[in-house]
Protein backbone atom coordinates (compact mmCIF):
# COMPACT_ATOMS: atom_id res chain seq x y z
CA UNK A 1 0.00 0.00 0.00
CA UNK A 2 1.22 3.50 -0.76
CA UNK A 3 1.35 6.31 1.75
CA UNK A 4 -1.76 8.45 2.02
CA UNK A 5 0.11 11.48 3.37
CA UNK A 6 -0.58 14.56 1.27
CA UNK A 7 2.26 16.58 -0.27
CA UNK A 8 3.00 19.79 1.59
CA UNK A 9 2.68 22.97 -0.47
CA UNK A 10 6.09 24.43 -1.28
CA UNK A 11 6.83 27.97 -0.17
CA UNK A 12 9.27 30.21 -2.02
CA UNK A 13 11.82 29.70 0.77
CA UNK A 14 11.46 25.91 0.40
CA UNK A 15 12.00 26.14 -3.36
CA UNK A 16 15.08 28.35 -2.93
CA UNK A 17 16.41 25.99 -0.26
CA UNK A 18 15.87 23.06 -2.63
CA UNK A 19 17.87 24.80 -5.35
CA UNK A 20 20.70 25.51 -2.88
CA UNK A 21 20.73 21.87 -1.71
CA UNK A 22 20.73 20.60 -5.30
CA UNK A 23 23.59 23.00 -6.12
CA UNK A 24 25.55 21.64 -3.17
CA UNK A 25 24.86 18.09 -4.24
CA UNK A 26 26.03 18.96 -7.73
CA UNK A 27 29.25 20.35 -6.27
CA UNK A 28 29.79 17.18 -4.23
CA UNK A 29 29.15 14.96 -7.24
CA UNK A 30 31.49 17.16 -9.28
CA UNK A 31 34.19 16.69 -6.67
CA UNK A 32 33.67 12.93 -6.72
CA UNK A 33 33.92 12.81 -10.49
CA UNK A 34 36.95 15.12 -10.50
CA UNK A 35 38.64 12.75 -8.06
CA UNK A 36 37.75 9.85 -10.34
CA UNK A 37 39.41 11.44 -13.36
CA UNK A 38 42.27 13.17 -11.50
CA UNK A 39 45.57 11.77 -12.81
CA UNK A 40 47.30 12.63 -9.51
CA UNK A 41 48.46 10.12 -6.91
CA UNK A 42 44.92 8.80 -6.26
CA UNK A 43 44.55 5.17 -7.33
CA UNK A 44 41.55 4.30 -9.48
CA UNK A 45 39.98 2.07 -6.78
CA UNK A 46 40.13 4.98 -4.29
CA UNK A 47 38.81 7.40 -6.90
CA UNK A 48 35.94 5.03 -7.71
CA UNK A 49 35.18 4.58 -4.00
CA UNK A 50 35.16 8.36 -3.54
CA UNK A 51 32.81 8.80 -6.49
CA UNK A 52 30.50 6.07 -5.14
CA UNK A 53 30.54 7.63 -1.67
CA UNK A 54 29.68 11.04 -3.10
CA UNK A 55 26.90 9.54 -5.22
CA UNK A 56 25.42 7.61 -2.27
CA UNK A 57 25.51 10.62 0.02
CA UNK A 58 24.01 12.80 -2.73
CA UNK A 59 21.17 10.31 -3.25
CA UNK A 60 20.60 10.21 0.51
CA UNK A 61 20.42 14.02 0.70
CA UNK A 62 18.15 14.22 -2.36
CA UNK A 63 15.91 11.60 -0.76
CA UNK A 64 15.76 13.82 2.32
CA UNK A 65 14.57 16.73 0.17
CA UNK A 66 11.92 14.50 -1.46
CA UNK A 67 10.80 13.26 1.96
CA UNK A 68 10.07 16.81 3.09
CA UNK A 69 8.69 18.20 -0.17
CA UNK A 70 6.75 15.24 -1.59
CA UNK A 71 6.12 12.76 1.23
CA UNK A 72 3.33 10.91 -0.59
CA UNK A 73 5.84 9.67 -3.20
CA UNK A 74 7.64 7.56 -0.59
CA UNK A 75 6.02 4.51 1.03
CA UNK A 76 5.01 5.27 4.62
CA UNK A 77 7.80 4.55 7.10
CA UNK A 78 10.45 4.01 4.42
CA UNK A 79 11.82 7.50 3.77
CA UNK A 80 14.03 7.88 6.82
CA UNK A 81 15.27 4.29 6.47
CA UNK A 82 16.23 4.84 2.81
CA UNK A 83 18.12 7.99 3.78
CA UNK A 84 19.96 6.18 6.59
CA UNK A 85 20.95 3.32 4.27
CA UNK A 86 22.35 5.66 1.59
CA UNK A 87 24.21 7.95 4.01
CA UNK A 88 25.77 5.07 5.94
CA UNK A 89 26.89 3.36 2.71
CA UNK A 90 28.59 6.56 1.59
CA UNK A 91 30.29 7.01 4.95
CA UNK A 92 31.54 3.42 4.96
CA UNK A 93 33.24 4.02 1.59
CA UNK A 94 34.94 7.20 2.82
CA UNK A 95 36.14 6.01 6.24
CA UNK A 96 38.85 3.52 5.12
CA UNK A 97 40.43 6.17 2.89
CA UNK A 98 40.27 9.31 5.01
CA UNK A 99 39.76 8.38 8.68
CA UNK A 100 43.17 6.65 9.21
CA UNK A 101 44.85 10.05 8.89
CA UNK A 102 43.55 10.90 12.38
CA UNK A 103 42.17 7.65 13.85
CA UNK A 104 43.90 4.29 14.38
CA UNK A 105 43.02 1.75 11.64
CA UNK A 106 41.59 -0.77 14.14
CA UNK A 107 39.28 1.93 15.52
CA UNK A 108 38.22 2.88 11.98
CA UNK A 109 37.46 -0.77 11.23
CA UNK A 110 35.45 -1.09 14.45
CA UNK A 111 33.45 1.98 13.42
CA UNK A 112 32.81 0.49 9.99
CA UNK A 113 31.58 -2.77 11.57
CA UNK A 114 29.21 -0.78 13.81
CA UNK A 115 27.90 1.28 10.87
CA UNK A 116 27.42 -1.90 8.83
CA UNK A 117 25.40 -3.45 11.65
CA UNK A 118 23.19 -0.34 11.84
CA UNK A 119 22.77 -0.29 8.06
CA UNK A 120 21.85 -3.99 8.02
CA UNK A 121 19.12 -3.43 10.61
CA UNK A 122 17.87 -0.41 8.61
CA UNK A 123 17.80 -2.49 5.41
CA UNK A 124 15.79 -5.26 7.08
CA UNK A 125 13.36 -2.71 8.52
CA UNK A 126 13.09 -1.05 5.10
CA UNK A 127 12.21 -4.36 3.46
CA UNK A 128 9.57 -5.10 6.10
CA UNK A 129 7.93 -1.66 5.78
CA UNK A 130 8.17 -1.35 1.98
CA UNK A 131 5.11 -1.58 -0.22
CA UNK A 132 4.93 -4.22 -2.95
CA UNK A 133 6.30 -1.94 -5.67
CA UNK A 134 9.35 -0.92 -3.63
CA UNK A 135 10.01 -4.55 -2.73
CA UNK A 136 9.81 -5.45 -6.42
CA UNK A 137 12.31 -2.70 -7.29
CA UNK A 138 14.67 -3.94 -4.56
CA UNK A 139 14.39 -7.53 -5.80
CA UNK A 140 14.92 -6.55 -9.45
CA UNK A 141 17.93 -4.41 -8.50
CA UNK A 142 19.52 -7.36 -6.73
CA UNK A 143 18.79 -9.74 -9.60
CA UNK A 144 20.17 -7.40 -12.29
CA UNK A 145 23.29 -6.68 -10.25
CA UNK A 146 23.85 -10.37 -9.46
CA UNK A 147 23.66 -11.55 -13.07
CA UNK A 148 25.77 -8.67 -14.41
CA UNK A 149 28.44 -9.11 -11.75
CA UNK A 150 28.47 -12.91 -11.96
CA UNK A 151 29.06 -12.77 -15.71
CA UNK A 152 31.73 -10.06 -15.47
CA UNK A 153 33.48 -11.74 -12.53
CA UNK A 154 33.65 -15.09 -14.30
CA UNK A 155 35.04 -13.56 -17.49
CA UNK A 156 37.61 -11.50 -15.58
CA UNK A 157 38.62 -14.49 -13.42
CA UNK A 158 39.14 -16.62 -16.51
CA UNK A 159 41.21 -13.87 -18.16
CA UNK A 160 43.24 -13.44 -14.95
CA UNK A 161 43.88 -17.19 -14.72
CA UNK A 162 45.11 -17.15 -18.32
CA UNK A 163 47.47 -14.28 -17.55
CA UNK A 164 45.67 -11.84 -19.85
CA UNK A 165 44.81 -9.27 -17.16
CA UNK A 166 46.18 -8.22 -13.77
CA UNK A 167 44.62 -9.07 -10.42
CA UNK A 168 42.13 -6.54 -9.01
CA UNK A 169 42.00 -5.84 -5.28
CA UNK A 170 38.90 -6.59 -3.24
CA UNK A 171 38.63 -2.84 -2.53
CA UNK A 172 38.43 -2.17 -6.28
CA UNK A 173 35.88 -4.96 -6.71
CA UNK A 174 33.74 -3.44 -3.95
CA UNK A 175 33.69 -0.10 -5.77
CA UNK A 176 32.74 -1.85 -9.00
CA UNK A 177 30.03 -3.80 -7.16
CA UNK A 178 28.48 -0.60 -5.78
CA UNK A 179 28.62 1.10 -9.19
CA UNK A 180 26.84 -1.84 -10.82
CA UNK A 181 24.30 -1.94 -7.98
CA UNK A 182 23.51 1.78 -8.36
CA UNK A 183 23.10 1.42 -12.12
CA UNK A 184 20.91 -1.64 -11.57
CA UNK A 185 18.80 0.35 -9.12
CA UNK A 186 18.31 3.09 -11.71
CA UNK A 187 17.27 0.52 -14.35
CA UNK A 188 14.86 -1.27 -11.97
CA UNK A 189 13.35 2.03 -10.80
CA UNK A 190 12.94 3.33 -14.34
CA UNK A 191 11.17 0.13 -15.37
CA UNK A 192 8.61 0.81 -12.62
CA UNK A 193 8.26 4.49 -13.49
CA UNK A 194 10.09 5.68 -10.38
CA UNK A 195 12.48 8.57 -10.92
Describe this structure in words.
The protein is an all-alpha fold. It has helices at 12-37, 44-69, 79-98, 105-129, 132-161, 170-191. Helix 1 runs antiparallel to helix 2. The protein is globular, with a radius of gyration of 19 Å. The protein starts with 11 loop residues before the first helix and ends with a helix.
Chart the SSEs and their pairings.
Blueprint lengths: L11 H26 L6 H26 L9 H20 L6 H25 L2 H30 L8 H22 L4
Throw out a few tags for this protein.
globular, disordered N terminus, 195 residues, mainly alpha, 0% strand
Structural class: mainly alpha
Determine the strand fraction and express it as a percent band. Answer: under 5%
Mean pLDDT: 83
From N to C, what is the helix and strand string?
HHHHHH
The main β sheet shows up as:
none
Oligomer: single chain
What is the general shape?
globular
Q: What share of residues is helical? A: over 70%
Ends distance: 19 Å
Give a brief rundown of this model.
By secondary structure, this protein is an all-alpha fold. The protein has helices spanning 12-37, 44-69, 79-98, 105-129, 132-161, 170-191.
Amino acid sequence: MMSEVQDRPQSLAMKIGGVIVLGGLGALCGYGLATLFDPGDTTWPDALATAMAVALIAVGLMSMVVLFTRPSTIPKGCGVLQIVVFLLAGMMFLLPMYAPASIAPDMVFGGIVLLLAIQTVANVMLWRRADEMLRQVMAETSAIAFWALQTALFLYAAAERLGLVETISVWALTGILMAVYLLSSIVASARRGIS
